[in-house]
Each structure stands twice: as C-alpha cells, then as structure tokens.
Amino acid sequence: MLLSKNRGFTLIELLVVIVLLGIVSSFAVLSLNITGLDSELNEEARKIHALIRLAKEEAIIHAQEIALVVEKEKYVFMYWAFEEDKNKKRKYFWKEKESKIFRERTAHEGLKIRLETEENIDFSKDDKDKNKNLTIFYSSGEQSKFELKIYLESDKQEFYLITGNINGEVVMTKNSK
User: Fold this and answer.
1) Which domain does 55 fall in, by range?
2) 3-class DSSP state for residue 151?
3) What does the pLDDT look like over 123-176, one tens digit per residue?
4) What is the pLDDT of residues 81-128, one digit of tens each?
5) pTM of the entire structure?
6) Residue 164 lies in a domain
7) Within a domain: residue 63?
8) CA dihedral sign of residues 101, 140, 168, 60
9) Which one of 92, 94, 134, 142 has the lowest number of neighbouring Cβ atoms within 10 Å?
10) Residue 140's domain is classified under what CATH number?
C-alpha cells in the first residue's frame, strides 16, 4: 500500500507569510512617501495653524509683539526687540525668536506659502526690517489682518487658507477641486 504524502502549507504558515509581507510593504510605503504631496500639504497647514495659535498665546503671556515672517517657501517667528546705544537711546528691530518651537522652517519641496496682509506695517527705519512680508500678533490679543495660503506648486486649485482678523480670530479652511 502506497501512501501519497501530498504535503502543502498549513494555514498558520500562510498567515505568518501574509503578515510579514504586510509589515514589509507598510515600511516600504512609509519610506517612499507614496502618500504624496497631499498629505504633506495637510500636515504643513496644520503645523502652521498650530504655530500661529501658539504665537498668539505667547505674545499675550509674555506681553511681547510677535510676528510671522513669510518668505517664499520658508517662515519664521520674530519678536519686537530693542538695544540701547551709549546714549541710552533705544533702537527697535525684529529679532528671530530663540526657541526650537518658533525656529525658521522650510516648507516641504513642492509646497508654496503666500502671506497677504491688508496693510504694510513698517515699524523700523532700518532697511533690513523694511517691507518684510509679515503679520503681527500683539500682546493685547489683537493681530494684523492676514490671509496665509498654503498650496501645491503643481496644483493651485487645492489649498489651505488660514485667515486672521484684527480681533484675534484665526480660521483654517480647505479649498479643494
């Protein structure tokens, strides 16, 4: 009597292989960033929105004017500082915040940031501070009116818009196709 031993894979062996393939493929997807620029756009908009709200609170708590300065693909938070000369005369200027939270940041490649303000505020006579594209968060809780648009360089139809009015309200909305 001949016994035919037709041996295949057990259910447990198949399940182990499927789980391992799932884990390896998820690491591959995360490392290649297959999720695309849409998720980068969403993440950047949420990050800037949270930083703006934090800067507003920081300005009130420390009784110090803070500005968001936007230049092409990067942005930084600054505060209104001064230094005294020999004659005790104060010279005011915008100085970058010395904080890891408010450090200069560059948007992800492929994203653009544009800041529009209602008025051009010029506090300083110093050329380095003139015509900065900025919005200010005052220690009183007010702020200069602004619109901050974060969008994909390749697709200007989908973007996030963060708006602020003079009463201190900041709202983020998403515009999609």
Assistant:
1) 37-175
2) strand
3) 555 545 455 688 999 999 999 999 999 988 887 788 999 999 988 899 999 987
4) 888 888 888 888 889 988 888 999 998 888 889 998 876 555 555 545
5) 0.72
6) yes
7) yes
8) positive
9) 92
10) 3.55.40.10
